[in-house]
């Protein structure tokens, strides 16, 4: 057999492209207006690590431009991993698609390898998706527990991944951060962390028109993810 017989077909053979030459995709064009939607759609989400696990808190309001309340009972934190949860911040459609994509990858990883993806790898994947995918105007928090410890990551719209002991995203972040700076300590129990997170959400609700109507609290431990909604802040404070 001659060497030329193994050559990839050329466009002149009547094929649209050579089967051995992968096509390169393009990054989506994200305008400055799209990036600003993270703040204008409104929300407040908080993630806190403790020695016992991770607490994630969000408000319950969906708004249009931070001015019109379109829904008063939105669960903005979802389980995406056996011991991990992600918040929804910014564009609703983008955030929902983002969560579905991450869940699919987590399930595929477990099916192929017979073990759960670690949280650092999941955070890296989330950053890659945010940077290169069609998930406009999202700024979620990822919280999870694995063999390496307890983790909280913020994922910015450009794909940046930042790990910290606690973090806040959304339009009410400046108010919520003030509360966390005052009340957070590195020896919080899970119950205490839930109180601190709920206090931060309540402070944001008082001043940020895009946040309101109660709080969802997710408790993430090595046993799994438990998510509960509370209309009345007195139930958790």
Report on the architecture of this protein.
The chain is an alpha+beta fold and 237 residues long. The protein contains 5 helices and 12 strands. Strand 8 and strand 9 (161-163) form a beta hairpin. The protein has one domain (3-235): Aminohydrolase, N-terminal nucleophile (Ntn) domain (Glutamine Phosphoribosylpyrophosphate, subunit 1, domain 1, 4-Layer Sandwich), CATH 3.60.20.10. The model is unreliable at 1-40 (pLDDT under 50). The chain starts with 31 loop residues before the first helix and ends in a 7-residue tail after the last strand. Strands 10-1-2-11-12 form a 5-stranded antiparallel β-sheet, with helices on one face. The protein has a 5-stranded antiparallel β-sheet with strand order 5-6-7-8-9. Strands 3-4 form a two-stranded antiparallel sheet.
């Amino acid at each position: 057999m001659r060497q030329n017989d193994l050559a990839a077909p050329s466009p002149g053979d009547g094929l649209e492209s050579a089967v051995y030459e992968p096509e390169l995709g393009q990054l989506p064009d994200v305008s400055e207006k799209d990036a600003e939607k993270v703040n204008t759609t409104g929300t407040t989400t908080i993630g806190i690590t403790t020695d016992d696990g991770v607490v994630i808190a969000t408000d319950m309001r969906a708004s249009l431009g931070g001015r019109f309340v379109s829904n008063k009972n939105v669960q903005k934190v979802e389980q995406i991993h056996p011991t991990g949860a992600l918040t929804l911040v910014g564009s609703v459609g983008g955030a929902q698609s983002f969560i579905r994509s991450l869940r699919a990858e987590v399930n595929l990883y477990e099916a192929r390898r017979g073990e759960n993806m670690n949280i650092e790898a999941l955070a890296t994947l989330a950053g890659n998706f945010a940077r290169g995918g069609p998930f406009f105007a999202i700024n979620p928090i990822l919280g999870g527990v694995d063999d390496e410890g307890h983790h909280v990551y913020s994922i910015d719209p450009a794909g940046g991944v930042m790990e910290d002991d606690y973090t806040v995203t959304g339009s009410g972040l400046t108010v919520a951060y003030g509360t966390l700076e005052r009340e957070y300590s590195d020896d919080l129990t899970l119950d205490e962390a839930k109180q601190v997170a709920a206090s931060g959400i309540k402070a944001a609700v008082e001043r940020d028109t895009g946040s309101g109507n109660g709080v969802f609290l997710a408790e993430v431990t090595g046993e799994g993810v438990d998510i509960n909604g509370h209309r009345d802040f007195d139930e958790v404070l």
